[in-house]
Amino acid sequence: MIPLHLEKYTAQDFDDYYALVRDEAVMKYITGEALSKDDAQARFAKSIRQNDAHAIFGSYKIFIDNTYIGFGMVILDEVNNEAEIGYMLFPQFFKKGYGQQIANTLVALACKTTIQTVMAMIDPENDASRKILTRAGFVSVEAGIVDGIPTEIFKQTLLP
Fold first, then answer.
1. Secretion signal: which residues (predicted)?
2. pLDDT, tens digit (0-9, with 9 covering 90-100), for 74-120
């Protein structure tokens, strides 16, 4: 597998981010629909603030060679003292093993912090993400509705 390259998003990267989140296929199992430009701008601004606040935690552009293939995040949840990972890929990169590689890379980033638990949320109908998370060592702990969207929560305890 070709190595991934991650770079934190900067304020100048909105167009790259928006190219992902305005794609119906990308957002199918995340919000259920593509984001409007206004929603995308609000989410992106929050991501940039988080990127500026932490060295490791934040949102990343993901590249294979020099090709932008998607988004990954490792976000600190200070209330629960855990990290949340998430990822999005352009459709042409689905089912090629990149999702697994990204999940593993994001967990490795979380391991560089003092966080002991990593969580991820998926749409219960997203079998591909369920397989990715299970292979990455996550266990399903809860299913329900989060922000009006069916959600399954996975967690992994990190070894010290």
1. none
2. 999 988 889 999 999 999 999 999 999 999 999 999 999 999 999 99
